Amino acid sequence: MKNFIIFLFTISVLAGCGRDNPAPNDPCQGVSVTVTGTTSNPSGTSANGSIMASASGSTGPYSYSINGGSFQVSNQFTNLAAGSYTIVAKSAAGCTGNATFTLTATSPCAGVNIIITPTVTGTTPCVNGSGFISVSATGGAAPYLYSINNGAFQSTSSFQGLNNGTYQFVVKDSNGCTATLTGVTVASRAEGPKFAAVKALIQANCVSCHNATNSSGGINLSTDCNIVAAKDRIKARAVDGNPSPMPSGGLLPASERQKISDWITAGGRVID
Ligand code: HEC
After folding, report:
1. Distance 125 CA to ligand 1 centre (A)
2. Which CATH architecture describes the domain 2-103?
3. For residues 190 and 271, is the Cβ–Cβ distance under 8 A?
4. Tell me, what's the pLDDT at 181?
5. How many angstroms does the Cα of residue 246 sit away from the middle of ligand 1?
6. Among 2.60.40.1080, 2.60.130.10, 3.60.15.10, 2.60.40.1640, what is the CATH number of 115-186?
7. Which of 114, 174, 257, 267 is 20 to 30 A (C-alpha) from 205?
8. Per-residue model confidence as pLDDT tens digits over 160-191
């Protein structure tokens, strides 16, 4: 008999307090509070997601609670990590509704588009490893690291000592997001006009006695690189006549000798 009375009491308590079985003058009778929200997902493991909740169906102002926490006036919940969140909205009259939102971690590289821009300086003919590529990166999070032809990443964005060829670059930003640029070509720089003038006069005046089969005095002037390598001796013989003029019959006209001097003054390279 004693147990039976406790049982009845329990039933009456439940019936009097629940919003699901409202008393006749319950302000929430027939009221349905709807919670909606706008979410922003966190990036990676960062707790930088957010939910902006909005409530309707009853009379505000509403207050909001997340995952059973205390109610607050603000409808914004920030600094959220990936996970599920239930937000309860409560109207001025105390009527509640809820909705559950799921925040999913986004890849820190989603939407990141790193653009690699190369600046190529071609090789100087006859100078080994004289090519140079410098790359710049935009669109990611600095600082960047750079790799050439799948080599180790380095912080320097310039690559020296290159020969003619095709190169590939990978750039990695501070979040580990990468971009690849293939087909960056290093080619020989063009022959310069001063060299072209000297080469022409050597072909006309010297190569008959200075070629691969007849290299008088051990000098073959039939290739670009041989001309560059012998430039000091060419000047000594053909410009200064020291120790004796070349061609041996007498020095070239002054205008021709000037071409040799001008070329050497400009650097004495194929590109000058
Ligand atoms: C008719 C053939 C002939 C022509 C043309 C000729 N050379 Fe020579 N050259 C020689 C001979 C022979 C020697 C070796 C004897 C000597 O050193 O004088 C020589 C030696 C040289 C040497 C090597 C010696 C040194 O001083 O380093 C150079 C450099 C040279 N010539 C430059 C020239 C240039 C530049 C021209 C054209 C402007 C030229 N020669 C035209 C026959 C020629």
Report:
1. 24
2. Sandwich (2.60)
3. yes
4. 98
5. 5
6. 2.60.40.1080
7. 267
8. 999 999 999 999 999 999 999 999 999 999 99
